[in-house]
Each structure stands twice: as structure tokens, then as C-alpha cells.
Amino acid sequence: MIAVRDQRDKTAFAQLFDFYAPRLKAMAVRTGMRSDEAEDIVQEVLLTAWRKAAQFDPERAQVSSWIYQIARNRQVDLVRKERRPVPEELKLPDADDEDANQVLGLEQETSQLKAALSTLSEDQRIVVEKAYLGELSHSEIRDVTGLPLGTIKSRIRLGLERLRHELKELR
């Protein structure tokens, strides 16, 4: 792993791949994944290990621990993604069906939400927008922003509390 990290050594990576791929696949299959899903996970995990090799620190973790943690995180992300409710297909209303009061109410609520979002600190607003408007998972936000997961979760929680307070009259 050191050779992969320091010299981007493809031969060393091939050895890592050959060693960990069957083990990662077996781990994924044991947790209930289909064989094809497990193979996809293995590919993603080892690709992530290649891309993020610079983040590997042998003083903080062994190679196996680091790679298995990446695999575990990826599996958790997949489970969360599968459990997200799929939105129902929306029927577009006919132009004549739109009630002017509904349109006006929606515009007012939208402007109130924009105003409430503007009261958040920029740090909170960015992660709340990525999580709820961008529909990114916490891990995806971490990958985009480089922030630790705990920081992301705290900013979202604090931002949502602030929004609840700002929008309480809409309830």
C-alpha cells in the first residue's frame, strides 16, 4: 500500500487487488448481497483505495482495516440508497386546473423557505442544500466538501433546527 500511495505503483496495486478482491467479495456475499452486487462493491472499493491512496496512514490503521472500512462504508451507503422512498410519478395538472390561490401560496412558501435558508450560516446552508436539494448522502457530501462526517451531521442538524424555528408559522 505504501508503494501505491507514494509511487502510484500499478504492480503493487495489482497485488493488493488480487489479495483483497476475493476476500471483499466473500465478505459482501456473507452480508446478503448477490454475487454481481458484491463484485460491483469490490470494484468500487478498490478503485476508491487507488484514488485515495494518499490518505492511507500506516500509523493510524493497517491496510486491511483501511480497505475493509471503505467496503463497509460503501455497503452502508448502498443500503441507505435502496431504502430511500422512490417518488411516485406526478401527474401534471392541466393548465385550467391550477388554482390561483394554490399558486400564490406555493410562491409565498418558496420565498419564505429562501428567506429562512438565507438566515443560516453559509457552512450550514451549503450542507443542508446538498443534503436536501441536491439529495446527496452524508458520505457524498464528505467526498465533495472534504469535511468530516461529524461536522456535516452537526451542520445539518443545527441548520434544520434553525429552519424549523424560522418556518414555524407555516405549520
TrEMBL record:
Q: Which domain of life is it from?
A: Bacteria
Q: Which UniProt keywords apply?
A: DNA-binding, Sigma factor, Transcription, Transcription regulation
UniProt cross-references to PROSITE patterns, sorted A to Z:
SIGMA70_ECF
Show where the RNA polymerase sigma factor 70 region 4 type domain sits.
112-163
Alphabetized GO MF terms: DNA binding; sigma factor activity
Give the matching Gene3D superfamilies.
1.10.1740.10, Winged helix-like DNA-binding domain superfamily/Winged helix DNA-binding domain
Q: Which GO terms describe its biological process?
A: DNA-templated transcription initiation
Cite a single Pfam family from the UniProt record.
Sigma70_r2
Q: Which residues form the RNA polymerase sigma-70 region domain?
A: 17-84
User: What family does this belong to?
Assistant: Belongs to the sigma-70 factor family. ECF subfamily.
Instruction: Tell me what this protein is called.
Output: RNA polymerase sigma factor
Organism equals Actibacterium lipolyticum
